[in-house]
Amino acid sequence: MEQIRQLKFAAGLAKIMETFHNFTRPPGDIGALLEKNYPYPPWRVLVPTAIVAYLSLVQLLRFRAIRILERKYAAYVEDPYKLNYRQAAEIMRLHQLYDMPFLFYFGTQWALVKSYGMSSGTPLLVRTRQLCDPIRVGRRAEDTALLLLELLVGDIDSERGRRALARLNWIHGLYASHIKEYDYVHTLALFVFEPARWIDRYDWRPLTRLEKIAYFVYWRELARRMGFGDLVPETLEELEEWKEQYEAEHMHYIPENHMVATATVDLFMRTIPAFLRGFVGALFLSFIDEKPVRDALGFPDPSQWATLLTTGFFQLRGFILRHFFLPRIAPIDPVARPGEDGRLYREPRWIAFEPWYVANTWYNRVVLWLMSGGKLAPGGKYEGRGYAPEELGPVEFKDKGIKEVLREAEIMKMYAIEKNEIIGAGCPFAFGR
Fold this sequence. Notes:
Layout: H1 2-24, H2 28-37, H3 43-62, H4 64-72, H5 74-77, H6 85-99, H7 101-115, H8 122-128, H9 134-152, H10 159-174, H11 181-202, H12 209-226, H13 236-250, H14 255-269, H15 277-287, H16 291-297, H17 304-324, E1 337-338, E2 344-345, H18 362-372, H19 402-414
Antiparallel strand pairs: 1-2
Helix pairs in contact: 1-3, 6-7, 6-12, 7-11, 8-14, 10-19, 11-12, 11-13, 15-17
């Protein structure tokens, strides 16, 4: 059906081109004389021909990658739950790194914001001051982004992937008595559903069922390695139903929710000029488009103009990408790269808020200066010495738990995933049941 639709679209464009040519061709003998003396078509024909050819090429190539992927995994289209996590990771790469990376990572950010509406989790964040201290919140956000990149885009079976996951488990283990087990499941559900929700509503194509379930299969594997995999429902539909019930019980306003959410808003606003902050703040509210979430965070309803503006922008963006832009031919590469000293360094264009772990080079200084309007530079308080996965997390724990993290990373390496062994010795729930 898609190919038939594309052929009809191309035929329609060809008809328009023919009409345009007939309209612009001089009448009678003058036209024949021009065609005889000037065998090459004039610009009136070349321009519309090039436009039609380009738009036809866009139509031809836009869905090519997803069609190839679905042919490769045709045996799983009917029942994607049979995928293993390695196959799921390959399927995920298409929408993460090629087709719609912007809204994928945008939705992932809003999954974190929405998690602050859960009254069972924010009191710990306020007590530890990890997300309400202006000095700490930027680094905390960058470390969270790095851990997610290592786990979602990197290879969780690689050395750095295992260390990143072991570090995450170790940090959670410090607060084992304060974090409810099912809060982990709810955060997982937000990460599964929120990027897909943004993509389905606003990007140039929705995610296929194969892609959505592949993403769920991959997160379920992460949950297993973190020690709470047996708490995760078996299907995507069951997880969505569970999420709605859990939010009905635990998503309600408490002051700590608003404190953490406000600190996050302030972090987003940090580089916005003062005269634009009211305007950008109104747009920020319109992104939180679910009233129960806004109420739980203590935010007012957005202005109608802000909602119309953001909705219109995203819809227009999706339409333009769908019909006028060729697909990306190379993947984006947001993962940090190893330096000569063996530590991992971020590219300045991929930072979210602060240039932690960006090498202090002249090139990076220029890029950051341009990106931030002269407000950010590598080095200095941002150190500029890269990172190791086993060091990420709250700054007060930077040099702590290293041996435990490396030990668990080795345990992860030893366990055979095919035997369904529980992985995640450093997680508070891994071997407790």
